[in-house]
Amino acid sequence: MYALAAPVDTELDIKKSRFIGIVMPVASREAAMRELGALRVRYPNATHYCWVLLCEGASGFDDDGEPGGTAAKPMYNVLMHKGLTNVLAVVVRYYGGIKLGAGGLTRAYGQAVSEALKLATLTAVEPTTEPRYRCGFAHEATLRRLAERHAAEVLDAAYDDAVTLRLRLKVRDVAAFEADAIEALSGGLTRCD
């Protein structure tokens, strides 16, 4: 999987229509919708603002009035071919008066995203997981220190007759973290999921 290092945009003119291809890194659907709103302001009076969002836990797309399957689908295919995640692709179109037909639209939208990605810097993304671990109150500080040592982020904590921590860590680090935690807590650790 790959992510974008920074936003990139490019512009194509096809039969008098202007296609502005924009790709940008995003962390959530909310962030993507804010960026889409900003693009509507930045490019006023455009005919279409077609978009595809690929984000952990939230994906979506919109052909924004173009015939079904002629805008978002080719954009999605380009993003998937590159193995991207946490990305928003938007193609802003200013209609030039000449109809392109379904095939022409499909090529234009896919090409706009593809051209923008040619200018982009991609960075490898390691998959993460968010397991929950339960231990006694006396072991909480030790578990938190181990999480920090293994570059795991503590996302939340729940308290009842024990403490449950939800962590985010790289998938490749889970086994080592769990082995260290079981040893340090003398077996007093339970994975909850």
TrEMBL record:
Domain UPF0029: start-end pairs: 134-187
GO CC annotations, alphabetized: cytoplasm
Protein name (Swiss-Prot/TrEMBL): IMPACT family member YigZ
Pfam family, one: DUF1949
Domain of life: Bacteria
Any GO MF annotation of the entry: guanyl ribonucleotide binding
Species: Pandoraea eparura
GO biological process, any: regulation of translational initiation
Family indicated by similarity: Belongs to the IMPACT family.
Signal sequence, start to end: none
Domain spans labelled Impact N-terminal: 15-117
